[in-house]
Amino acid sequence: MGSVPGPFAACVDATGGVCLYGHMITFAAKPFQPDGWLDRNWVAVLSIVSILAVAIVVTVVARLLVRRFRRKLEGTATPARELNLRRAATLTHALSTAAVVLIWTIAALMILGRLDVSLAPLLASASVAGVALGFGAQSIVRDALSGFFILLENQFGVGDVVQVQTTGGAVSGKVEALTLRVTTLRAFDGTLHVVPNGNIQLVSNKSRGWARAIVDVRVGYGEDVEGVRRILDELFEEIREDPVLHDWVMEGPSVLGIETLGDYALVVRVVAETLPSRRWDAERQLRERITGRLGERGIRVPLPPAGGPRSSGAGGTP
Fold first, then answer.
1. CATH-assigned architecture of domain 211-296
2. Which of 163, 198, 269, 306 could cross-link 172 (Cys pair, CB 3.0–4.6 Å)?
């Protein structure tokens, strides 16, 4: 212990104590120990910040990927670009929403875990609710998934003429609207059919690529079939130069030959490959012009006898 000069004699010992006039006063400083609760919470705060940062980055990356996928779906400038844009917008919106919900649900669960919140009751409740919603909304989920793949695979689109086989029977018409859940078809007589996508079992698209116009011509048994063929070939050469039918017909028309031998007439089949949307118009024009030309050349088109059997005239396949 050493002495301190002055009126207040003091001494300092090795432990840090000070004595004033023989009284020892100890100023021993307790080393700082960080509080355990605060330390744990700082770690939790840093973890939460990290989780939020990662969630934000993953969300941005997911949206960039969805945007790139949308540009690929939109494709190049084509007459159907507007339909492609609508299809791409529907698909990418569904993908973007699903990705954001999934990312932030996982992030929320991880944040709750860092806050020492027990997730077992929450997950159990969510499981029970999920099972209940699954039973109640399974048709909606099935419809949405079916609609998603219809759009993704571009099976049909707005403006297409389709025939769909559903669980309730066959429905045909022009597609007026297409969403993830339902397809809206307008029948030829004006009836509007709303078909849930999950109920569609088979789709026959009559508006893709090309179509085949089929016209059956009845010729009497006494007529010269080769002469009829020459008359029709002459007519078809004129039709190929027609400004209206030239835009509709992709190949043909041409005579396939005798299709069936009816009870009262021969059936000669004529075919032509047309634009899908012009098949029925082309068939009507061909019937009208063939009938007129045969009448000009004196070719008799027999009629079924009264009360006699009628020939289908379309029993074969081209």
1. 2-Layer Sandwich (3.30)
2. 163
Q: Domain coordinates of the chain in residue numbers?
A: 36-145, 155-205, 211-296
Global pTM exceeds 0.85: no
Architecture of domain 36-145: Orthogonal Bundle (1.10)
Tell me which amino acid residue 145 is: L
- Tens digit of pLDDT at every position of the chain (318 positions): 444 454 444 454 544 454 544 555 544 444 444 455 555 567 777 888 888 898 899 888 888 888 887 777 666 544 555 556 666 777 777 778 888 888 888 888 888 777 777 767 766 766 666 666 666 677 888 888 888 888 888 888 888 889 999 888 889 898 888 888 888 999 988 899 999 988 999 998 887 878 888 888 888 887 788 888 888 888 888 888 887 777 788 887 888 888 888 777 888 898 988 888 788 888 888 888 888 888 888 887 777 766 554 444 433 434
Angstrom distance (rounded) from CA 303 to CA 76: 53
Amino acid type, 269? R
Q: If residue 66 lies in a helix (H) or strand (E), which one and from where to where?
A: helix 36-74
User: 141 in helix, strand or coil?
Assistant: helix
